[in-house]
Amino acid sequence: MQHASEPGLKSSIHNAQSATTFDLVIVGAGFAGLYMLHRARSAGLRAIVYEAGDGVGGTWYWNRYPGARCDVESLEYSYQFSDELQQQWHWTERFAPQPEILRYANHVADRFDLRRDIRFETRVLSAHFDEASARWEVRTDRSDGVSSQFVVMATGCLSSTNMPDFKGLDSFKGERFHTGAWPHEPVDFSGKRVAVIGTGSSAIQSIPIIAQQAAELTVFQRTANFSIPARNEALDPAKEAAVKAEYPAFRARNSLMMGAFGANMPRHEAPALAASPEERQRRFEERWTRGGLGFTGAFNDLMIDAKANELAAEYVRDRIRAVVKNPATAELLAPRQVIGCKRICVDSGYYETFNQENVQLVDISAGGIEEITPRGVRAGGREFAVDSIVFATGFDAMTGSLLKIDIRGRNGLALREAWRAGPRTYLGLNVAGFPNLFTVSGPGSPSVLTNMIVSIEQHVNWIADCIVWLRAGGQRTIEAEPQAQDAWVGHVNAVAGATLFPTCNSWYLGANVPGKTRVFMPLLGYPAYVQRCEEVVARGYEGFKVSA
Ligand code: FAD
Ligand code: NAP
């Protein structure tokens, strides 16, 4: 299904090193793996990247569904480590479309000559720590294994697709797609009857475009989601010039935001409950009109006070009712959970799509999908015959790709075992008992609650600096102290527990995957987190055990 559609991809497979001993093995060639390789080289480390796909870009390599684009503005959703790169790269839209982000990832790989140390179409199967040598033995589906002092899991938080185990799934005679593993050839739904299962961000981005092509589109909704219009547009040259004139200062302002983005429209620091109805309406309206993720920044109590949140939620429901002409459909599309509790979606014409005659919404909140049949989808006791099914059913988020790898630390301890009751990390960077193994944007770090490229760079810089420090001091291993990890897990839970985030069945909690332990995985608040990481370093890697 995947093809080398970007220039020069295949050649790197042949140029890659044939060595079997490394300082650093990096798993994944998304934005995290690419920058980790760049930093590793600058630090003089002998590093190699293994990537399951046949190209770089990670998320933007796999998610090629129609309408895929970022929901953090392009001028922010990009690397800042190279001022030349950020000055010279030109984004064409306020929110960059997937093909452009993929081109950017490829540009970075070429510009920094990264491909020669990336082995594509190579999946890491296991990583075992050998006590005697204090090194990791890493095995892939293409080799007997290599030895490395350090391993960085840059495997991505949203890289393991969630395909529910629907009854009859394999019996379907038509075409089926998952948004997170979209074919590389163009898919044309013209004249077809299409089903979309799911109404998260991926569905909400793709549905308006599929609806333009398809003869009939049937959307199966288990839970309605809140979506705010993107108001996407061509990037204003004056805005681009203004940002580029002071890019480092622009980045610095964003890094002080809770989610490391959106300094151009910071949260209004007053409670909704103290505002007059007119002021509330005005502030919600202002954010709705501006578009994008900043909506829940209209007041500072929206994510901590259920009554305040309900005011914002009802504002959005009213906007949905105003757009969707059929009142029954509008009510079905109006979400009932806390707004912001599941990640808010950002759309271009989502609600309007349900006014099209060829589009129908099927509520499966009560009985779910009963089965996939050879002809289509059965729900609510009725069979919907379709030619194609799009599964927009999301990801086994944050832990999925890590736990697919057989990772074993000291005394053969399996990560799957260590995380049986949910992921446990120190700073989202390392797990007690797994020396010299780092995760980028792992559970317990701000990660998916931020502009992820910013979080990725912060993690990669921390890891690279740590390795350099360790080696300069003649030390061999670094690992989290169990007590420090326990305290950190407690901190992450306490921060989330003081908010409305844990109140719905989100993938932040693992609630979207049957059987997954329900734990709030990311940490809220980027600036405080960065400060903590810096303090840990300043205090000689406090909470870590270092051994020679
Ligand atoms: P990924 O990009 O997921 O890369 C991980 C790579 O590791 C993949 O290529 C995978 O093939 C590889 N891999 C995994 N396991 C193995 C293995 N065992 N062996 C070999 N290779 C392996 N974030 C934002 O901040 N803003 C956005 O607007 C935004 N939009 C998004 C839109 C979509 C559709 C999705 C799915 C996510 C979005 N995200 C967004 C989150 C996005 O995942 C991150 O922004 C970022 O791209 C993650 O980069 P990464 O390198 O950490 O992981
Ligand atoms: P998602 O948010 O998890 O949505 C998955 C959808 O599938 C949900 O509507 C879910 O319903 C439904 N679903 C899952 N299992 C189902 C089942 N067994 N039966 C019926 N329905 C089922 O996944 P996603 O849309 O791929 O997005 C994941 C994350 O990726 C986003 O939150 C975001 O962080 C990122 N993303 C960002 C963008 C962007 O705008 N830049 C675009 C896409 C993705 P329930 O809600 O009931 O579980």
Considering the chains and any ligands shown, give keywords for the structure.
eight-stranded mixed beta sheet, 20 strands, five-stranded parallel beta sheet, alpha/beta, binds NADP nicotinamide-adenine-dinucleotide phosphate, 548 residues, binds flavin-adenine dinucleotide
Describe the model.
With 548 residues, the chain is an alpha/beta fold. Helix content is 32%, strand content 16%. It has helices spanning 9-15, 31-42, 59-62, 83-88, 98-111, 201-213, 237-245, 247-255, 277-290, 306-323, 327-333, 350-353, 400-404, 415-418, 452-472, 482-497, 526-538, and strands at residues 21-27, 47-50, 118-119, 124-130, 135-140, 146-153, 175-178, 193-197, 216-221, 227-229, 345-347, 359-363, 371-372, 376-379, 382-385, 388-391, 406-408, 437-439, 477-480, 544-547. The radius of gyration is 23 Å and the shape is globular. Residues 70-71, 158, 164, 179, 197-203, 205, 222-223, 343, 346, 368-369, 392-395, 448, 505, 507, 512 line the site of NADP nicotinamide-adenine-dinucleotide phosphate (NAP).
Note the overall shape. Answer: globular
SS element count, helices: 17
Give a short account of the largest sheet.
8 strands, mixed
Percentage beta strand: 15-25%
Measured distance between first and last alpha carbons: 46 Å
Averaged pLDDT, please?
95
